[in-house]
Write a structure and sequence with these properties.
Distance between the termini: 46 Å
Oligomer: single chain
Number of strands: 6
Shape: elongated
Number of helices: 5
Strand content: 25-35%
Helix content: 25-40%
Amino acid sequence: MVDIKDMLPQDAEGRLRIIQELVPGKQITLAHIIGGPRPIVYKKLGLNPDVDYDKSAIGIINMSPAESAVIAGDIATKEGDVYLGFVDRFSGTLIITGLIAEVTNAVEEIVRYFGSDLGYAVCDITRR
């Protein structure tokens, strides 16, 4: 029986050599709305529950190319009364907070705009 480790590239000392590549497409891979999260969720995300908890919803979107998060953040703040909790132009992650209706409107508009106007492949919006 052949061990898969023997088939992977190794360096001169027998250590595995792994090459990782990112080939970004134009896509939204995650669009999720968390309604009524508990304060611990805000804390673990690095958000201040004293400021954000009464807002009652968190929207999370992940996209590529990663710089698209800047565009999505702009759309979110123009579409609804939401707070930008986190925008990462290196990983393509956007986290917004606000009232559930405002977060929902913002996430829906981001997904619509990226799919219709920019030609991105978009996923369905999920809610919990």
